[in-house]
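It would be a great kindness if you could assist me with a short task in structural biology. Thank you for your consideration; the sequence and its tokens are set out here.
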Amino acid sequence: MRRYYDSGITKTLAFRKEQLQKLKATILRYEKDIAAVLYEDLKKSPEETWVTETGFLLSEIRAILNDLRLWMKPERVPTNLLNLPSSSYIIREPLGVVLIIGPWNYPLQLLFAPLAGAIAAGNCVVLKASEFATATAKLMEKLIAEIFAPEYILFDRSDGASVIPAMMKSFRFDHVFYTGSTQVGKIIYQLAAEKLVPVTLELGGKSPCVIEEDADLEVAARRIGMTKFSNAGQMCVAPDYVLVNNKIKGRFVTALINVIRQFFTDDPSMSDNFGKIIHQKHFNRLIGFLKESKILSGGKFNEKTLHLEPTIVGDISLDSSLMKEEIFGPILPVIGFDTHEQAKAIINKNPDPLAFYVFTSDRQKEKKWIEEVSFGGGCINNASWHLTNHHLPFGGRGNSGIGSYHGKASFEIFSHRKSIMKTPTWFDPSIKYPPFKGKLALFKKVIR
């Protein structure tokens, strides 16, 4: 792969666009197969698969193809007085051979979307798929083998705990892009630091959702219910817990219970619109959370099929594991508050969440929340949908990640910004050269 990259073949605009177009065409050709394997792994419906996986990915590729020529052009920047009459510009060059590690919850989108950015930037890529989404990983391996030479794009779906450290210790990648848990992200970061390899870490955290007294409760319930229970809650930007003004808490819970019934019927385990938990270990972890609070709605589960119905819980201790760990499942704590300060104090117990959501009709309140809470990205009167806009960089900060991607940000994260200054030879004043004695006053005028 290093030799292939050094040949320069991946750097031309024509080559990059051709590879993106092949990826796009192959995804479309295997659309039904993709839907089938995602149903097998996570019980996703064809509609949910299109919105959150296949269609999302195709939209990302189209956006990159539309603007790639413009992004690759040298960017002219001003030149300061000291260096006139030089000209200055920035060019984006590929990083080299990069490693992309994907998770199991959106196994296609979260592996192939950064892949599109890495291809667009002119890199060679090692793709490490999650071994937990078995059927999807097998299909992705087949797709990659069909369209790309292994010295260009290399796919691996073996046990990540053993193969990732082995790869990172034996080879110096030029960048590592990881999506997954904070715990594993720290390990990746340590491995990368040994060789001074730059990283992008797309992690998670406890993303709060605030509902003010003046919010439209019906709209809030629908938008929170849809995104929280999409993919059975196994989404990094799903609302992790809701902070709702005590004056409307009861009404909100009632509205959310009605929404869950409308979306997923009285038996969500039989609904085409509600998925399953990925594996037994994660299922057991979620069931353990149910013992820490009062169930307001839901709570039924089937260990054989790994189904846990949408569940609303209350009477939660802020010191419980439910409020310390990212839930990553269809359990939604609802916590009441009386004042802005009370709600903010709860949020501050888990700083720098990946996402933050506030529902209010008061512009002053929304401004106050957005300015006072540190988070990766978020929505006002919506939840999770900010990540579908490729014009918005997506990523966390602090505990929830390093770096961002989507759209142009994906191209940038896999590129190096190389600064160039070009100076003509026809103008070469002696003031720039020794002896410098007596030139201090002039230097102070020029350099300031």
In short: The chain has 15 helices and 20 strands. The radius of gyration is 25 Å.
